[in-house]
Structure formats: structure tokens, C-alpha cells
Amino acid sequence: MTVNVPAAPTTTELLGRPAGSHPPATRKPGPRPERGSSPREGQRVRPLTRRQIEDHMQELGDLYAETSGGGPWAWNQARSAFLRRLAADARRPGFELLIAETTALTGCAYGFPVGGDGPWWEGFDGYLPGRLLRLAASGRLFVISGIHVPSRVRRQNQDRAWNLARRLQERLLTDHGAAVAVTLVNRSDHRTVEALRSWGWRYIEGDTPRTAPLGPFRVLVLDT
Q: How many C-beta atoms surround the C-beta of residue 163 within 10 A?
């Protein structure tokens, strides 16, 4: 999962200091203007149909390569692997891919709802407690396979509802009426884990990595 975001900072016009006012050094500073993109100025979020996903595969591959932070290798081997995974996920029932765009593609997130059994289970064996298995059986569990956004999103305004990653993940859950999202992250991918946690994700057991089951992956969950 790539975790990076366009956050074109808002700007605040500086007002001139009227004659006779106190010099800046003796004035009480006011609140600093908030910086970062907001929905009013930023990206439009919309779903793609399966046919549109097929038509935009190359653009989605370019977005992955540009936001993965992996260097030039991301443009060949890693990019190809991402497109294969995306094509496989797109065949799952209920799959949804959201894109964010201005005049160009700026981000995407995708995943699928799950039931109590089925091929989605691979990789989650032994990780999910009974509560989440019951949610899966009731159709209220959603797997988010990837969030790919350009880089300031994971560093700035992570707790804001208008943070692009938060908008994308929340929209996926809302569209499917899901109560909880789950995702698998490679245990050594600290960068992704850190970004996800800044967007509200948590470990299954007690919000600490020491209690997570051993294995190549960590499972993180996101509650609505």
C-alpha cells in the first residue's frame, strides 16, 4: 500500500500594519492559519466502473509508481506487480475503486466487501478475532487493498476529515455500509503502518505491535 498526498497549501493574505500600531515583536501572536488542502479546493472523489478501470490501467500504474517511493525500479517490476494485483482484485464481487482527481489523477483507494468465507481469506488466517468474523458473515466487513496518494497526506493534517486518504477510506466504507475495514501490511513496512495509524487505523489487539500475532503481516482495522 502506497501512502503519500497532494496537499496544495492554502494561503492567507498578509495584512499591512497600520501606522502607530505596536511593532510585531511586542504584539500577541494570533492563531496560525491552517495549511493543507481541503475538499473545497482539492480533489474530486468518484468511483470507476470496471470498464473504466480497464481503460485507466496505465494511468493507475503510473500513479502507483509515482507515489510508491521505491525509485526507478517502481516503473517496471513493482509497477507490473501492482497492476496484476489490481486486475485480480477487480474481479472480486463488490470491488470498488475510487479515484481522486483535479485536472489529472491524484490518488486512488480500492477494496471489496467480504463474507464469512471465500478467497478473500488468504493471508488473514489466524489474525481475525471472532468479532470481525461475525461482521464478515453479516456482510459488514470490508477489505481495503490499497491507498495510493502523493506524499504530504501522510505528514500533514492526518487527523483532518478532509485529509485525502481519510476521505477515500471513509467513502469506501460508506458506499458499502461497512462497519469495519481491514488491511494487511507487510510487517517490515513501517512507513505504511505509520501512515495508516495517522489516518485512524489501529492494531487488532490493544493498539500495540507487541500484541500482534507473529507472521509476515500485520492486520490493521479501521472502525467507522
A: 28
